[in-house]
Amino acid sequence: MSRRALITGITGQDGSYLAEHLLAQGYQVWGLIRGQANPRRSRIARLMSEVSFVDGDLIDQRSLVSAIELVQPDEVYNLGAISFVPMSWQQPELVTEVNGMGVLRMLEAIRMVSGLSASRTASKDGLIRFYQASSSEMFGKVAETPQSEDTIFHPRSPYGVAKAYGHYITKNYRESFGMYGVSGILFNHESPRRGAEFVTRKITLAVAAIKLGLQDKLALGNLDAVRDWGFAGDYVRAMHLMLQQDDPGDYVIGTGEMHSVRDAVRIAFAAADLDWEEHVVVDPALVRPAEVETLCADSRRARAALDWEPSVDFTELMTMMVHSDIEQAARERDYGDVLLAAAW
Ligand code: NDP
Ligand code: GDR
Fold first, then answer.
1. 77 FRET partner, CA 20 to 30 A, in 15, 101, 155, 252?
2. Any idea which ligand is nearest the CA of 224?
3. Can you give the residue ranges of the NAD(P)-binding domain (predicted)?
4. Across 188-216, average pLDDT
């Protein structure tokens, strides 16, 4: 019998790559979908015939219990979240509800349906395995570089604070009820499917629009921010590997390479034979109230225990995204659609 996986956030970047990866591994894949006629279903349009869907929302406990009862998953991947960090200063309560309390609701749904209690002992056989999408944003104002599973958290945004809650409550349910729950502390990962509001995709969409003469300027915030950027397709492999271990644990996933937003701009414009300095302007309104200045992963635990390695480096990643966006923009122009770069 093939294993059953339930993915929250299946309409997101990671959800779409994870669904493809699990289907290729022979899983029956279910996606939790919220909202009537969710327009982001288009991201997984090509998988519609292979993936099953169940209605639900991380702010609705009842819907999560129903989803677990219906799907009877072997593995649950909780990728659902409001993932754009600046949104968390605009709607901190909502972000905390979804990204923090939503994790608790899913853990409770699994616990209720599985009948787990504090008295349950050691065996992990037959337990629903739970993956929580934790984030390098939890490190925030970093205490050390690079950051490992043992680095202390100092989140800098309501998003990071809510993710830290999700992280700790997953660990707490593992320790309190013997649940099989793991957190992947993933550093930034990107792809041609990345949302247009995130800086890499904002840059590559703008490069494409500038290349085709549809746009001239690109406004950005802090060009000095440093991140450890990898390819989303590599990172979903790590999520799956984490749930295949005998004992649940938390793992940092990243490339170990540091690049600034300025590097991202330079590489992306160069990939389209453009000079970034002619087009990029800094807009102070895009600088965050509290910035995470620098992040870099120490993934030695994952590399050793999961035998995981990233396969795409930063230049390849940015170049892949630029080429994909130029092709897409050219297609849209031919159909008469106007490409708009992100305004965030
Ligand atoms: P996306 O923003 O692309 O996708 C987010 C997903 O969450 C969407 O499918 C969205 O569905 C869903 N969602 C939003 N609100 C709810 C809700 N109330 N109930 C259920 N689902 C909801 O994010 P990514 O794919 O990039 O990231 C996946 C996860 O990994 C997120 O939790 C993110 O915080 C985390 N993460 C991401 C990193 C990255 O670099 N990409 C790094 C570290 C962590 P809808 O279509 O309905 O809006
Ligand atoms: P981040 O990603 O906040 O790290 O969260 P984002 O791409 O939004 O920002 C990265 C860095 O770039 C700087 N920056 C800009 N960012 C955006 N979006 N727009 C701009 O114009 C701009 N100019 C400079 C930012 O200040 C920041 O320092 C992502 C999300 O996927 C989270 O959900 C996830 O948890 C973390 O990565 C790890």
1. 155
2. 2
3. 6-321
4. 97
